[in-house]
């Protein structure tokens, strides 16, 4: 095969062709980071993820044997945002996501998930189940007075009816939060799996729990890179100790074949705080694992 050597790989994710909105699966970067509550810089995440993905272009998946790059895949580049205006940015992101067959988005802050869910639910006509890997609940009604900050995304998603909360599972939760947030989230029917429970269990058991919660309906994956421990992902704005190892996250994702995923995002990569690209590579790999699930189902 005439695969380019890794340091000369194309800049598009997995070398995908550019700009084809009609592709079966599209990749897009969303450089929004004006709703962050600690360290900013996730606007640079999508480019860092694409650069790190060069390590994933030379070979097939080691378990399933599929080639995620063999999908009908297109990289749309970066979505436009409205500088300094969160509601206007969310509206632009939703409009650009509308009509796509299947989207894997790279953030950017976690707030980008809300317009992506709005666009998806409008297209398929029903709420989705949600697999959410994160250190944080992200179910605050607002963050420091900002309604659409990155920590309120799933409060909006639930209250807007975009997510079916009884089909929603949050994995890796460990950050400080007020008891009222836990009470509200569980009260909606959401399943919360703290990081410590993941450590005391196995990827196979956690994946089985995910499958039981999400069921057979349409679903969405939202992977906040701070779901990983800072030892594995230091390049993020709100690091929290005690998180998942990359092998645990991979082990869970690899066991989710058959879930009816309709879209996904990997968010909160802030390369200015990264070390030797390990966070960007972790994010790129989680995106690659997701595409491998799609490729395996044909």
Written description of the protein model:
With 298 residues, the protein is α/β, with parallel strands linked by helices. Helix content is 31%, strand content 18%. The chain has a 9-stranded parallel beta sheet with strand order 1-3-2-4-9-8-5-6-7, sandwiched between helices. Helix 1 (45-52) packs across helix 9, helix 3 (113-124) runs parallel beside helix 4 and helix 7 (203-214) packs across helix 8 (246-253). The longest helix has 20 residues, at 278-297. The model has no long low-confidence stretch (mean pLDDT 93).
Secondary-structure map:
Blueprint: E1 17-18, E2 25-30, H1 45-52, E3 73-78, H2 86-97, E4 103-107, H3 113-124, E5 128-133, H4 153-159, E6 163-173, H5 179-187, E7 191-194, H6 195-199, H7 203-214, E8 218-224, H8 246-253, E9 260-267, H9 278-297
Parallel strand pairs: 1-3, 2-3, 2-4, 4-9, 5-6, 5-8, 6-7, 8-9
In a few lines, what is going on in this structure?
By secondary structure, the chain is of the alpha/beta class. Helices cover 31% and strands 18% of the residues.
Output the keywords:
alpha/beta; nine-stranded parallel beta sheet; 9 helices; 298 residues
Order of helices and strands: EEHEHEHEHEHEHHEHEH
Mean pLDDT: 93
**Alpha-carbon Rg, integer:** 17 Å
How many beta-strand runs? Answer: 9
Rough shape? globular
- Strand coverage percent: 15-25%
**Structural class given helices, strands, pairing?**
alpha/beta
**Largest sheet descriptor:** 9 strands, parallel
Residues in helix, %: 25-40%
CA-CA gap between termini: 23 Å
Helix tally equals 9
Enumerate the strands of the largest sheet in spatial order, edge to edge or round the barrel: 1-3-2-4-9-8-5-6-7
Contiguous runs where pLDDT drops below 50 for at least 5 residues? none
């Amino acid at each position: 095969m005439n695969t380019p050597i890794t340091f000369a790989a194309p800049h598009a994710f997995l070398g995908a062709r550019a700009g084809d909105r009609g592709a079966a699966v599209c990749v897009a970067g969303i450089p929004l980071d004006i709703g962050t509550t600690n360290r900013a810089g996730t606007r640079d995440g999508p480019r860092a993820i694409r650069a790190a993905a060069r390590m994933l272009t030379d070979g097939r998946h080691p378990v399933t044997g599929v080639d995620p790059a063999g999908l009908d895949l297109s990289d749309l580049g970066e979505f436009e945002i409205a500088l300094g205006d969160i509601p206007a940015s969310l509206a632009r992101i939703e409009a650009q996501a509308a009509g796509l067959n299947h989207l894997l988005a790279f953030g950017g802050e976690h707030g980008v998930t809300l317009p992506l869910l709005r666009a998806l639910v409008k297209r398929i006509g029903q709420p989705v189940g949600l697999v959410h890997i994160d250190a944080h609940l992200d179910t605050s009604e607002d963050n420091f007075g900002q309604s659409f900050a990155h920590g309120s995304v799933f409060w909006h998603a639930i209250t807007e009816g975009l997510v079916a909360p009884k089909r929603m599972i949050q994995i890796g939760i460990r950050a400080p939060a007020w008891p009222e947030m836990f009470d509200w989230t569980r009260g909606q029917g959401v399943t919360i799996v703290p990081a410590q429970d993941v450590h005391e269990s196995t990827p196979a058991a956690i994946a089985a729990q995910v499958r039981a919660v999400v069921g057979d309906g349409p679903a969405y994956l939202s992977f906040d890179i701070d779901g990983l421990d800072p030892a594995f992902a230091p390049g993020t704005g709100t690091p929290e100790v005690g998180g998942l190892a990359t092998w645990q996250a991979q082990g869970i994702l690899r066991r989710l074949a058959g879930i009816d995923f309709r879209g996904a995002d990997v968010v909160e990569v802030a390369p200015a705080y990264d070390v030797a690209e390990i966070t960007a590579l972790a994010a790129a790999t989680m995106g690659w694992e997701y595409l491998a699930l799609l490729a395996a189902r044909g």
